[in-house]
Design a protein that fits this description.
mainly beta; three-stranded antiparallel beta sheet; 46% strand; globular; 127 residues; Jelly Rolls; 1 helix
């Protein structure tokens, strides 16, 4: 079992994220995982990300507040407990258009090369 206490969750600083505090709950700096990692972000009023994508799919769950997610096809505003999935390479921008902070949970697979390395490591015979 790997427990990460919120008070001890390491911060991370992804590019093109403004007025946000991003914390790693599981995976990467927060410890080993096999398939995915979890992050939590606090987004200040007016904060968010620029329009961009990644090779991995993303899952967002709004824990507090209201978050607008804009894609090339349109936009949706999510409230508390609402969630969405973004496909691999689907560009998205996160926007807090309110006057209160937003807290959002992010679940995302590890990059394919890290998953492949983990699989190869598990398949290697040990003497």
């Amino acid at each position: 079992m790997k427990v990460t206490r919120l008070a001890e969750a390491p911060a991370y600083f992804p590019p093109n994220h403004e007025d946000m505090r991003c914390l790693r709950l599981q995976g990467h700096e927060a410890g080993q995982t096999d398939l995915l990692w979890l992050g939590m972000s606090h987004i200040l009023p007016g904060g968010g990300t620029t329009l961009g994508g990644s090779p991995e799919e993303k899952f967002y769950v709004v824990l507090e507040g209201e978050l607008t997610i804009r894609t090339e096809e349109g936009e949706e505003t999510l409230g508390k407990w609402d969630s969405c999935r973004l496909a691999p390479h689907e560009k998205r921008a996160l926007e807090n258009r309110t006057n209160t902070p937003v807290t959002v949970l992010l679940a995302m697979p590890l990059p394919a090369d890290q998953r492949a390395a983990k699989t190869a490591e598990e398949e290697t015979p040990r003497n």
